[in-house]
Each structure stands twice: as structure tokens, then as C-alpha cells.
Write a structure and sequence with these properties.
The structure is a single chain. The chain has 2 domains: about 110 residues, no CATH class; about 100 residues, no CATH class. The chain is about 35% helix and about 15% strand. It has a 3-stranded antiparallel β-sheet, covered by helices on one side. It has a two-stranded antiparallel ribbon with strand order 1-4. Helix 6 packs antiparallel against helix 7. The relative contact order is 0.14. Bound molecules: iron/sulfur cluster (2 copies). One iron/sulfur cluster (SF4) binds next to helix 1.
């Protein structure tokens, strides 16, 4: 975003076009409760994302913690007041953003990013997150998708197992650890059912609770 301005007129354009990711200096904002875990979601390594800075679609090179959006607009943007609802406690990327000059933003953006481990002390929960990351890694999914052609049903079954693990772990953790369901996109990233389309696959939920894995062109398997 670049314009002819040389100061902020608080038009809100930057808040309705994207949301910030959290840098390490933003960790206190979450620990002090100004931003809640359910206001965030995790982009796990390898997840396909639109990179605002490079202006391209690419796999995330590392884990990113992002503020949620609603139809692309930051959830903290108040349309009526045309203002940020957490202005005094907004993330560092927001504070550095000057749409007429990207240098301050890029200096912040180049710094170290926050990760889930900065916000979670519970060792059991951290263990589950690591296990989920291992079993449901996007790199693993990408390699299994490549194996569909040579290995057929065996590779598809492994993909279905990954999807099922990702799907069932979320309510299990909420129930056993008294975690609000809205926090699961932060804890485990967005559901693989919702993020699998860049791999050329889609999942259709069946009325009996099972899900049907298909390629975007034709049927693949039921799980
Ligand atoms: S920094 Fe954001 S709010 Fe300020 S003028 Fe630029 S687009 Fe508008
Ligand atoms: S946190 Fe506030 S300043 Fe940052 S994008 Fe959201 S509404 Fe805008």
C-alpha cells in the first residue's frame, strides 16, 4: 500500500484490507489479555497463504500468529467509529504502518515473530500441539498428494487419517482441557478441511458425520 500522503488520516483502509501478524514484542498484548487467543489464528508452516508483503501466494515458511478477520476486515476495526478498538494496545505492525512509506513497517516485520509456544505454558497442551504438527504437517500432506498417482488408495487413506486426526483432536481437547472452541484455530491452526483446497482436494461433510475426500475434479475416497 503506497499513497501520496505523508501522514495518517485514519481512513482505516489498512484495517479493512488485512490483519497484522504478531511479532515477539506483541507477546505482552496477549499475556495481559488485550488480545485473546480466540482473536487469533495460527498459520502453520507450509500452509498456503497470501503474502501481503511479497504480494504472492506461497507456503508459509514458518509459523505465523495472525489477528482474525471478518470478510478480510480486522476483527478489531470498529466500522461505526472508524477506529481500532484496541488502538492503545495494537500490534507492532499496526503501529509501524505508514501507507506512504513502508520503511518503518518493514523494519518491524523483519524482526522475530511470535509463536504459539510464547503463549502456552501447559506442557500437556504443548505436547498435543507438537504431535498434531508432526502428524498433520502440510509438508506431509503435500508429499502424500504427490503419491496419489503412483500409490492410489493407500496414499488417499493416509490423507484421510490426517484429516480425521485434525478434525477429532479439536473437540477432544476442548472437552478434556476446558478450552473454548474458538481457541482451536490458534492452538492447531485452521482446520485442514478448510485449508486443503490448494492441494487440489476438497472435503465434503456427509450427513452421517463421515467426510468425503474428493479431488477438485472427481471423487477420491470416503473416510
Ligand atoms: S496508515 Fe492506514 S489509516 Fe492511516 S492513512 Fe494510511 S491507510 Fe489510512
Ligand atoms: S489491530 Fe487495530 S490498527 Fe491493527 S489492523 Fe486491526 S483495527 Fe487496524
Amino acid at each position: 500500500m503506497t499513497t501520496e500522503r505523508n501522514s495518517c488520516i485514519r481512513c482505516g483502509e489498512c484495517c479493512v484490507q488485512s490483519t497484522p501478524s504478531l511479532q515477539r514484542e506483541d507477546i505482552p498484548l496477549v499475556l495481559e489479555g488485550h488480545i485473546r487467543k480466540k482473536d487469533l489464528f495460527t498459520v502453520r508452516r507450509g500452509e498456503t497463504l497470501w503474502d501481503n508483503v511479497r504480494e504472492e501466494v506461497r507456503p508459509a515458511p514458518d509459523e505465523i500468529i495472525k489477528v482474525r478477520d471478518r470478510d478480510g476486515r480486522c476483527i478489531f476495526y470498529d466500522d461505526t467509529q472508524k477506529a481500532c478498538r484496541i488502538y492503545e494496545h495494537r500490534p507492532a505492525q499496526c503501529a509501524a504502518l505508514e501507507c506512504w512509506d513502508s520503511s518503518k513497517f518493514m523494519a518491524v516485520y523483519a524482526g522475530p515473530k511470535a509463536s504459539r509456544e510464547d503463549f502456552i505454558q501447559d506442557r500437556v497442551l504443548l505436547g498435543l500441539i507438537r504431535e498434531h504438527d508432526k502428524r498433520c504437517a502440510y509438508e506431509r500432506l503435500a508429499s502424500l498428494v504427490q503419491e496419489i498417482k503412483p500409490r492410489g488408495e493407500a496414499a488417499i487413506e493416509q490423507i484421510v487419517e490426517i484429516l480425521k486426526f485434525d478434525y477429532h483432536l479439536r473437540p477432544f481437547v476442548c472437552e478434556k482441557m476446558a478450552i473454548h472452541p474458538d481457541e482451536t484455530d490458534f492452538l492447531f491452526g485452521r482446520s485442514l478441511i478448510d485449508t486443503i483446497s490448494p492441494f487440489g482436494l476438497q472435503v465434503i461433510r456427509q450427513p452421517d458425520g463421515s467426510f468425503f475426500l474428493t479431488t477438485l475434479e472427481k471423487s477420491a475416497s470416503k473416510g
